[in-house]
From TrEMBL:
This is DNA polymerase III subunit epsilon. Residues 246-324 form the BRCT domain. It comes from Streptomyces djakartensis. PANTHER family: DNA POLYMERASE III SUBUNIT EPSILON (PTHR30231), PROTEIN NEN2 (PTHR30231:SF4). NCBIfam families: dnaq, PRK06063.1.
Length: 330
């Protein structure tokens, strides 16, 4: 059972009628961050409309490949050898998600990993909306030093027992989400809900086995997926160009060029979730160009040089995303 937290509960008459009727707080551990990486464990805490826990569920998943950074998640090949395949737990996982808003810390990552796993088994995850607790903490103006889960947990006095264990991470997030939800309801805050659309293209192409993986033992590459959606318009005005040494600000126009270690769609979704405007082209209004090859001759890089647009690499952009300044009040 979740720990009893002291955040005041709005009365039934003051609870926002537009708020969702239920939530699935999710955490997945994976073999890595790339689009061909796999889920190796998953946990779900189901919460009611007011954030009270109903039940929880956890499973390990055999990724049919090397487990990746064991030093982080602690799941070895030996531990995962007898675990079910994703196709074996897909139905149970779906029942835990169906009809609920998916809640996660950096929710776009968890959602995309889940969506890909369902696409591999030719199914669709029953999720229509997601809520990122990073975005919610920003909406609430919580005085956090950064946007790590441990900082959010510490703010509410939630004790982490096994970091990077899916079940404990989901528990911690559920305990931190409940007072956040109540604070949002008490303040009439609009929840930062985003639409989840299923993948519309998928092709499983074998990839070279990783270290420790035998040839033919599995492995996938998401060679042709793309979200079938148009990004929502950025609700914030463009505050101008990014200045080195300062924070990004909501409303800034960000463009990307060239290859990235984290897939482009994920980076763009993170930027959108942070309140930035993702631009498909570069103009004099662009606030920042993100590229790992600033000396390349791509049209965006050339235009950035011509216009004097600031350029940062992917790693620096990731650090800037962790602390985006809210848009100025209109």
């Amino acid at each position: 059972m979740l720990e009893d937290l002291t955040t005041a509960v709005p009365s039934s008459t003051s609870w926002p009628a537009a708020y969702p009727q239920g939530y699935a707080v999710v955490d997945v551990e994976t073999t890595g961050l790339a689009r061909d990486d796999r889920i190796i464990s998953a946990a779900v805490y189901r919460l009611d409309a007011r954030g009270e826990a109903e039940d929880h569920w956890y499973t390990m998943v055999n990724p049919e490949r090397d487990p990746g950074p064991v030093w982080i998640h602690g799941l070895t090949s030996e531990a995962l050898e007898g675990a079910p395949l994703f196709q074996d737990i897909a139905e149970e996982f779906a029942t835990r998600l169906e009809g609920r808003v998916l809640v996660a810390h950096n929710a776009v990552f968890d959602w995309q990993m889940i969506a890909r796993e369902y696409a591999r088994v030719k199914r669709e995850a029953p999720v229509r909306q997601r809520l990122c607790t990073i975005a919610l903490s920003k909406e609430l103006g919580l005085p956090l030093p950064n946007h790590k889960l441990e900082s959010l947990a510490a703010h509410y006095g939630v004790v982490q027992r096994r970091a990077h264990h899916a079940l404990d991470d989901a528990r911690v997030l559920a305990e931190a989400f409940r007072p956040s939800l109540r604070a949002a309801a008490a303040g009439g805050v609009r929840l930062p809900l985003l639409e989840c659309r299923p993948l519309t293209e998928w092709s499983d192409r074998p990839v070279a086995p990783r270290i420790g993986q035998q040839a033919g033992s599995g492995g996938y590459r998401a060679g042709g997926w793309r979200p079938s959606r148009k990004r929502p318009a950025c609700p914030y005005p463009n505050p101008g160009r990014y200045e080195a040494g300062r924070r990004l600000k909501q409303g800034m126009r960000v463009a990307f060029s060239g290859d990235t270690s984290v897939e482009r769609e994920l980076l763009e979704d993170r930027a959108t979730d942070a309140g930035l405007h993702v631009a498909s082209s570069l103009s004099r209004l662009t606030s920042l160009l993100v590229t790992n090859d600033p000396d390349s001759g791509t049209s965006k890089v050339v235009k950035a040089r011509q216009f004097g647009t600031p350029i940062v690499d992917e790693a620096a952009f990731g650090q800037l995303l962790a602390d985006v300044e809210p848009a100025s009040a209109v």
